[in-house]
Design a protein that fits this description.
The structure is a single chain. The protein is mainly α. It has one domain (9-91, 98-239): Fic-like fold (Orthogonal Bundle), CATH 1.10.3290.10. The chain is 40% helix and 4% strand. It is built from nine helices and five strands; from the N terminus they run ααβαααβααβααββ. The strands form two sheets. A three-stranded antiparallel β-sheet has the order 1-4-5, with no helix packed on it. A two-stranded antiparallel sheet has the order 2-3. Helix 1 packs across helix 8 and helix 3 runs antiparallel to helix 4. The longest helix has 20 residues, at 35-54. The radius of gyration is 18 Å and the shape is globular. It starts with 34 loop residues before the first helix and ends with a strand.
Length: 269
């Protein structure tokens, strides 16, 4: 991790930070200050990289741990961020209540160690569809709660879950749920305040919707279209849209609004 990314503010270009929110445009390899332009450039390049992963052009060892997620993130975002493939250095939360894994206490690695143990101890090939859905929901709940990266957790976790499903008779068609449904299920799976374990109950209907037989026809006309549909739920909005936190935005549930927060305020996924 480059030493300059050691605080909330250090991830942004100083001249783009809103003094009221502490949010700006993330530093990027394009040196692009416009948040909306950055979003489009980021989406284009990460989609190309995701196609490479999906086609098997890039070998990512299936270790199902933090190193596995870092390898995926590093490949997806290598054209966008200097810190691609590295854990965030700041804590984040989404709405009031329990924050994501604490990077300062090693909690991120603890969650991902739990993920590896669950994935590697499961006989995925022999699971019934219902058991597959329940187990996949639990795996994702822990990955989501770890939330290891400053940006791009959704896109990275979808590729990771596709790798998990490779061991089973099933695959995921993420285009079968809307971004709102995906985000709502993810938000509600977070642990209660002062608790550690996430609750995957809200994710079960989401994974039931996206789980299909591996032999079923592909939803898209080609592999690139399939990957684009997998990434679409995480389409990066402009910084203004993605970080503005109002009662009308995001998942209105027991955890409130959708904007990310650090000790300073909201942040972008």
């Amino acid at each position: 991790m480059a030493s300059q990314f050691d605080s909330w503010e250090s991830y942004f270009y100083p001249d783009t930070i809103d003094p009221l929110t502490g949010i700006g445009t993330l530093r990027n390899l394009y040196d692009e200050r416009g948040a909306q332009v950055l979003s489009r450039m980021e989406y284009t390049d990460t989609t190309v990289r995701a196609v490479q992963l999906g086609n098997g052009e890039v070998d990512v060892p299936r270790t199902y741990d933090g190193a596995h997620l870092r390898a995926i993130h590093g490949h997806l975002f290598q054209d966008v961020y200097e810190w691609a493939g590295e854990y965030r250095t700041v804590n984040m939360s989404k709405g009031p209540g329990r924050g994501f894994g604490d990077v300062k206490t090693g909690e991120v690695d603890r969650y991902l160690s739990d993920v590896q143990q669950l994935v590697t101890s499961t006989d995925w090939q022999s699971l019934s569809r219902n058991d597959f859905i329940a187990t996949a929901s639990t795996v994702f709940a822990y990955v989501n709660q770890a939330h290891p990266f400053r940006e791009g957790n959704g896109r990275t976790s979808k590729v990771f879950m596709a790798h998990v499903a490779e061991q089973s008779p099933y695959r995921f068609d993420f285009a079968r749920v809307s971004p709102e449904q995906w985000n709502a299920g993810s938000a509600l799976s977070r642990p209660d305040l002062y608790s550690y374990a996430p609750d995957p109950t809200s994710l079960v209907p989401v994974f039931a919707a996206v789980t299909v037989e591996r032999t079923a026809p592909q939803a898209g006309p080609d592999r690139a279209a399939q990957v684009r549909s997998a990434l679409s739920a995480s389409y990066p909005r402009s910084a203004a849209d993605a970080t503005r936190q109002t009662p009308q935005q995001g998942t209105q549930a027991r955890r409130g609004t959708a904007g990310y927060r650090s000790d300073r305020g909201s942040g972008r996924e």
